[in-house]
What does this fold into?
Amino acid sequence: MSYGWWKFIHLAGVVGFVAAHGTSMAATVMLRRFREPQQVAGILQLSAATVTAFYISTLVLLAGGIGAGVVGQWFDQGWIWVSIALLIGVGIMMFPMARRHFRRIRMVLELMETGTAVSRDDFGRVLGAGNPALTAGTGFVAVLLIVYLMVLKPF
It folds into this structure.
């Protein structure tokens, strides 16, 4: 397959990644605004609905990027390795942060559904416990760095 096709596959994966992951990022930010359990549950469902698309698009972007890297003979340059390391490293770092926050919220929602006494203040504290600006900012900066490396190929 030609370099152009591998690059197309890579960019198609990037578009899917940004679309699917952007939904989860937006959901994380939105959770701070809502306090009604039904609204929060709906936001969590929206975020969960994009998880499969996120993982598939991540695999597509990796496969396309690796294919383009092999055909384009880029693997002897540092920028491609730093890009891959950033994608994997930030993913490993962000996964537990987001997962832990969403799990806590789901647990409180389940407790509320079963009739366990959970005060509105406790619910609000759990919703506000995450740091969406840090999570979203970290991901945004990492993606910008990867775009910089891939477009300008500085080393």
